[in-house]
From TrEMBL:
The keyword Amino-acid biosynthesis does not apply. The keyword Iron applies. InterPro entries: DIOX_N (IPR026992), IPNS-like_FE2OG_OXY (IPR044861), IPNS-like_sf (IPR027443), Oxoglu/Fe-dep_dioxygenase_dom (IPR005123), Plant_2OG-oxidoreductases (IPR050295). The gene is LOC108853893. This is Jasmonate-induced oxygenase 4. It holds the Pfam family DIOX_N. Belongs to the iron/ascorbate-dependent oxidoreductase family. Keywords: Iron, Metal-binding, Oxidoreductase. Residues 201-302 form the Fe2OG dioxygenase domain. It comes from the Eukaryota. GO terms for molecular function: metal ion binding; oxidoreductase activity.
Length: 353
């Protein structure tokens, strides 16, 4: 694996703070990738479903709604999820303080493409690629054997403790969600977690995203269209600034976040395990000229060293296995080299190709 980036890294936040009036060419996306703002979102069918954990946990009616959301959208917002609201606000605030540190301090955590751990501004090592208008901090959370808080930010002082507390609560939510997904697929409650390799062996990473304000938001993207490679993702959105868009047919639907909700989305590994019943849907982030945006994405992934393929109980004569099994560490490597590119990766595993 390549150990360095193909070009020097530029902090987009530092660039934005120079007050430039045009977007440098390396962030200008080709016309067909530029943001589309679908103006008519009055139709309720055009809103990402909102589910209440109290209504779906072990409730047949609720499980149907989960199934519908995962088949149709690959995304839902969840409320009454058990993660403390004040903790959500504090951890997001702490990350905002981290990104507000001088760039020289953040550079001490500069990451490299072999592990991605640390502070960075690009995904993928393709030379001359068009870059996204964002910076991030990526860290390993699970399994605890690869957790190394000394690589996490040390400023602001409370941040490490907050990451651990938030990570713990989101881990518990993910365990309930995996069980809920399993039941909603008609499987035994623990079936999907077993297929993930067991709760002691799963992986989790946290990515804190910083999307600086941008002088020409219609020319670029904060995060290019992609599907998440892992199992499920829990996004803590910015409480004030929208930006996440989900693909719905030919439209991009902007998520209007409900107060205190978390956003849940299906990743490629659950699409594979469910044999395509659940969809890992493309999404992207648009930026704006007025406000910076901070979000936290926690990626909850299957154990990385076992083959992940369609669950046998979900296969039928009419619907044989769509995907070839692959280990998550192999799968992730391909994405880390290429960077975000729609759904090309999971599609390339289709058994017929
Ligand atoms: C991601 C992602 C969405 C957001 O980090 O993979 O899709 O709102 N983030 O930042
Ligand atoms: Ni994503």
């Amino acid at each position: 694996m390549v150990a360095t980036w193909p070009e020097p890294i530029v902090s987009v936040q530092a660039l934005s703070q120079t007050g430039l009036s045009t977007v440098p060419n390396r962030y200008v996306k080709p016309v067909h990738q530029r943001p589309v703002y679908n103006s008519d979102q009055s139709d309720l069918d055009m809103e990402v479903p909102v589910l209440d954990m109290r209504d779906v946990w072990k409730k047949p009616e609720g499980l149907k709604r989960v199934r519908n959301a995962c088949e149709e959208w690959g995304f839902f917002q969840v409320v009454n999820h058990g993660v403390d609201y004040a903790l959500m606000e504090s951890v997001r605030g702490a990350w905002r303080e981290f990104f507000d540190l001088p760039v020289e301090m953040k550079r001490k955590y500069a990451n490299s493409p072999d592990t991605y751990e640390g502070y960075g501004s690009r995904i993928g090592v393709v030379k001359d690629a068009k870059l996204d208008w964002s910076d991030y901090f990526f860290l390993n959370y699970l399994p605890s054997s690869i957790r190394n808080p000394s690589k996490w930010p040390s400023q602001p002082p409370k941040i490490r403790k907050l990451i651990e507390e938030y990570g713990e609560e989101v881990r518990k939510l993910c365990e309930r969600l995996v069980e809920t997904l399993s039941e909603s697929l008609g499987l035994e409650p623990n079936h999907l977690m077993k297929a993930f390799g067991g709760e002691d062996k799963v992986g989790a990473n946290l990515r804190a995203n910083f999307y600086p304000k941008c002088p020409q938001p219609h020319l670029t993207l904060g995060l290019s269209s992609h599907s998440d490679p892992g199992g499920i993702t829990i996004v803590l959105p910015d409480e004030k600034v929208a930006g996440l868009q989900v693909r719905r047919g030919d439209c991009w639907v902007t998520v209007k976040s409900v107060p205190n909700a978390l956003i849940v989305n299906i990743g490629d590994q659950v699409q594979i395990l469910s044999n395509g019943i659940y969809k890992s849907v493309e999404h992207q982030v648009v930026v704006n000229s007025g406000m910076d945006r901070v979000s936290l994405a926690l990626f909850y992934n299957p154990r990385s060293d076992i083959p992940i393929g369609p669950v046998k109980e979900l296969l039928t004569e009419d619907r044989p296995a769509l995907y070839k099994p692959i280990r998550f560490d192999e799968y992730r490597l391909l994405i880390r080299q290429k960077g975000p590119s729609g759904k090309n990766q999971v599609d390339s595993l289709l058994a017929s190709t």
